[in-house]
Amino acid sequence: MARRCGQRRVVRAYAAWRAVATHDLTPETIGLGGFAAHVAGTPETAREALARATVRLELCDAALPTYFHQLLMTLVGWGQVARYKLWQAELAGRTDDTTTDMLAIRLVWEEVLYERYSGKIAGSWAFVRDEHAAPVTATADLVVDEILQEAAERAEQRRLAATFDLPPPKPSDSRPALQAAFCIDVRSEVFRRALEGVDPNIQTLGFAGFFGIFAAHRRFASDVVELRLPVLLNPTVTTCSGGPHDAADDLKSRFSARATRAWRRFKLAAVSSFAFVEAMGPVYVAKLVRDTLGMDAPPVPNDPAPRPDPALPLETKLAGAEMVLRAMFLTENYARLIVLAGHGASVVNNPFASALHCGACGGYSGEVNARLLAALLNDHDVRKGLRERGLVIPDDTLFVGALHDTTLDQITLYDADHPSPAHADDLKKARAWFSAAGKVTRAERALRLPRADHESHIAARSRDWAEVRPEWALAGCKAFIAAPRKRTAGRSLEGRAFLHDFEWQKDKARGYGVLELIMTAPVVVASWISLQYYGSTVAPQLFGSGNKLLHNVVGGIGVVEGNGGVLRTGLPWQSVHDGEKYAHDPLRLSVCIEAPRDAMTDILRRHEGVRALFDNHWLHLFQIDEAGRLAWRYAGNLEWTELDAAAAPEHPVARLAAVG
């Protein structure tokens, strides 16, 4: 029932529940007599308990998939915690049985209830069993709903196509005054557009916010390892903040951090929390007042410069630097100053803070990855090796890591990581440009946020511990665009599109490796984000987390609504609704890629999981042609339909008429 993992004894979920349930009298007090005795007589392993309950409930094989799925769905967030444990185990080449354990626990309850009430519900239960055994088919209502959903999406797609039809800005062959790379996050679209409007000679780029650094990172004065990379992947480098000269301070700070964590555990412990409030409450009066009035600004991440630990061999650094530069298509015409901006959010008292940070960085802010890449690209030996590989970075080019605060729309430059007096004027200009762009961005965002009539109102929201909508995060997302920036520059996409720079002509020579990476990683992650907002909007009771005002954090892993119940999943209602109307339109994501159709088809053919997202209509896929127009729609089964030649029966209105 248990095993040793290092020095820690791990107990299986089913075994732990069984040990408690055999002595728990709660079911007895609510009328389920004999429950503890029944549990004591169950098999000792989850799989045996599951098999026994299936037989006693008289379930046939055909009924098991939907019945088991229904039981796991009733667990809501707890089922997702179990699946997450399995996901993490699979990444490490192992497995995890928590999901099976939880399913067995639910089946034991079903077994007890059935044996207690079978005489009264025999007929109804037989009907339920037959329904689960029958093939799953769509009802007429569901078909109509699907058609109306597609009609709404096609209307948005026509508006998106009209945006592409606008004339592109005139290209410039001169050296950019500044190059700034941002995460593909939809919030970056507004800031990039504002920044390019400040000076037409500023060039922005879009790339996944982990910047190609798969880091397991330890912050300064912390012994907690943070996986700052997409959850699809495993870390390839271990990093920490600070160098050897920071070692003594780091050791002292780590002892201090451990003491702080011990103090926090004492404050929150069941036996001490009330006594703590009674004794220490008056000491916190001043802090509560400052928090209430928004007097204390959330701290900006300001650790010492991060570094690999241990140091990476030169060949590894060279391979990583080349891969990232070519994937970003940052291979020529370098500016004197190139800013790599990860993103994060400044919020307080918010259990959903990680949802406002960078999804590509595992729910952390992205400045660590940006600073690591800047250090890599400033390395003299790396640049020398890159020149031999055809990537010539000028000697006067400086890379600087930065943090784009999406709540405040401010840019923090970590130029102290790489002091360069020769770039003092460039940095001064960049700060002025970022400041001006931030003001424009805040003014645009204020139009959407409740009680934010002016851009100056934005900052106070980040400091208000009672603010349930410090920002809208990715609410409204509707499109993913992988194309040269000239296709979208100067056009307002309203902060609703993921923007990934991509040039298929350069990628073709390398076998469309970047295209494959985009379609199998950023597109998949964007689909998760889109579907999280979709589910939290259309089915908030099942896929949302309820009212943020009633949330209580449980175990540091999730929230319950009120003082009990299931662990909630998804987004709170306040993240998709402003109190009067929806802030998010529940649309399936439209993925628009400028690349040859045969190249995309080949990638879909080789990646069945990605293909299933499009074939099963979780996402839409479009090809942007060489004129910059939405020209072809992926129709499923590796087939494409030209937009101007769409057959009438395939149009949603025609299909609706056919159903009627």
Give a structural overview.
The protein has 660 residues and is an alpha/beta fold. The chain folds into 3 domains: 132 residues, no CATH class; 228 residues, no CATH class; 163 residues, no CATH class. The protein contains 25 helices and 19 strands. A 6-stranded mixed sheet has the order 13-12-16-17-18-19. The protein has a 5-stranded mixed sheet with strand order 4-3-9-10-11. A 4-stranded mixed sheet has the order 6-5-7-8, covered by helices on one side. Strand 10 and strand 11 form a beta hairpin. Helix 8 packs antiparallel against helix 25. The radius of gyration is 27 Å and the shape is globular. The relative contact order is 0.09.
Nutshell version of this structure?
By secondary structure, the protein is of the alpha/beta class.
